Give the backbone structure.
Amino acid sequence: MHLGHASTYLLAWLQVRSHHGQLILRMEDVDRQRCKPEFAEAWRQDMQWLGLSWDEEAPAQSTRDAAYLAALGSLQKQGLVFGCQCTRRDMDEAVRAPHQPWGAYPGTCVAANWPLDGSVALRLAYPEDAFVLRRADGAWSYPLAVVVDDRDQGVTHILRGQDLAPSELPQAFLHQALGNVPPACTHAPLWMGPDGARLSKRHGSLSIAALREKGWSAAAIWGWVAYALGYVSTTEPCVPSDMISSFLAQPIRSQPVSHEEVLPLWA
Ligand SMILES: [Zn+2]
């Protein structure tokens, strides 16, 4: 977990706690090659160290094959699925990266009538964004998994990174096709590295584990996050509940947080 994740989770936590909702923790391990149980446990430990709670934990996506298969069947019956034989690289990107821009599919296979027997990738017949539902190797895509999970877990509100804003409408279409009212979406600011890129694993010094090892306390980290998000006027140490009243009083910051705003955390 890095600071960008922690900041987004904090905002979801503030949204839920300020409206007396229930916060669901869900391990989105749809990419089985990259997701390992020890990573999920490290996340839980980081969140506990940061003082961020959750009310229930949903089943991991790796246990949800039957639900995804049933949803795919329903979409097929509605004529909303087509086969696609575009390159493996396209398929990998669709599964791995919830952060890719959507709507990039050129429409190559829409009228090709590839068989829907599992030998080719399957896409949603939604002209604005024919995203992959299932890869040819059987892996479920991130958008299919999250929409089916949100429906089955009664999710009413989603708070996630600004980079996922373009996926809101296509996912709303999928929700409606699966008989669900789309959840309300709110977007959180991205955290950027000195290279101008969104925080990721290559910015290791901003991982919660690295900050802890450097001697940062959770309260000192939250002081800087609260300041960057505009909830306090100084960088004094604080805890998440200190931000609830400011959170309710102003809209969530939308512009990215640059590394210059939180330089001491990068030191
Ligand atoms: Zn194709």
In short: The CA atoms of residues 86 and 209 lie 39 Å apart.
